[in-house]
Amino acid sequence: MTLKLEKVSHQYKDHEALKSIDCELSPGIYGLLGPNGAGKSTLLRIMVDVIAPTSGQVLYNNRAITTLGAAYRDKLGYLPQDFHGYSQFTAEEFLKYVANLKGLDAKTARVRVKHVLALVGLTSVSRKKLKGYSGGMRRRVGIAQALLNNPKVLILDEPTAGLDPSERIRLRGILSQLAQDTIIILSTHIVSDIEYVADEVLLLKEGQLIGKASPRELLAKLDRQVWAVQVPHNELQTYTTAYPVSNLQLQKEHADIRIISHAKPHISAQQAEPRMEDLYVYYFGSGDTSNS
Ligand SMILES: Nc1ncnc2c1ncn2[C@@H]1O[C@H](COP(=O)(O)OP(=O)(O)OP(=O)(O)O)[C@@H](O)[C@H]1O
User: Fold this and answer.
1) Distance CA 277, CA 226 (A)
2) CB of 234 within 8 A of CB of 241?
3) How many whole angstroms from 78 Cα to the centroid of ligand 1?
């Protein structure tokens, strides 16, 4: 099973959001990482055939998804970035409704709704209206609806937004179980979301795919280039201007900073093990990093 992007470009009026994206995906978990405005949601919306690319195409098992139509949608699960659900529905009613839209027969729908509610840990509150749900609970309903039809292509736009740490860990577990025979793509600008779960990271910057590799391969590129340095307060600005900074902690007497540099930046600098946050700063700068 493959999902292939061939020279996918997208233009919004005067803004080129995606620039000739080429890549091929097979079952596994892909983390689509990029800062705000990089084009992540646009790319995912093209992959689920909600919008058509201005040029290029997406192929599922070597056939254009636009011609596959319903046959592709049957294989697809999608969590949009702005998923809300219907607040007057209970989780169970909402999922039954979506199962209906997805064309599941009544018996399968009952079984699948029960299964996905258990999977996302909402069984005990499944008869409560969504309007009483927290943001994280609603997000879990969104994840559940994407899984209803046992999709072979699962596309999750910022699935962890609003989830607390234990909910994130639960989601990682769910995705890992599915990854053997499902192509899973999740977008995020939170690096810790994909550090442990992604088989490959797709780096998207200003509409261009600038990297596609496993977290380990990407981190290896930063080998011997991450440094922990203690600098006096009055020298801090010199360092933050000269180097990408992936962490900064102000202490009373000095500042502890983590910087990326080919050469040893200071006589007291200690080499540090590269982490995904360093990678993010290396590729995207320190303006929009987030590990919350
Ligand atoms: N409907 C639209 N009309 C015009 N420009 C748009 C539209 N949707 C997105 N854009 C622009 O295209 C670019 C890519 O947007 P997109 O939402 O795909 O990025 P993103 O990486 O998902 O960002 P975020 O992390 O903030 O959600 C941005 O500059 C955005 O302002």
Assistant:
1) 11
2) no
3) 18
CA separation (Å) from 253 to 3, 229, 235?
54, 13, 12
Is 282 among the domain residues? no
Ligand 1 lined by 207 (C-beta under 6 Å):
no
Shared domain for 242 and 155, answered yes or no, is no
Q: Are residues 46 and 11 in the same domain?
A: yes
Number of domains composing the chain: 2
Domain C-terminal end among 179, 196, 214: 214
The whole domain housing 259 covers 224-273
Summarised one tens digit per residue, pLDDT across range 15-69 is 999 999 999 999 999 999 999 999 999 999 999 999 999 999 999 999 999 999 9
The tens digit of pLDDT for each residue in 165-193 reads: 999 999 999 999 999 999 999 998 788 88
- For 91, the token pair is 């989780």
Q: How far is Cα 258 from Cα 240, in angstroms, rounded to an integer?
A: 10
Are 262 and 137 found together in one domain? no
Which 8-state DSSP code applies to residue 283?
A: H
Q: Could you tell me if the CB of 41 is within 6 A of ligand 1?
A: yes
Atom 26, ligand 1: which residue's CA is nearest? 36
CA-nearest residue for atom 12, ligand 1, is 17
| The ligand 1 atom nearest the CA atom of 34 | 21
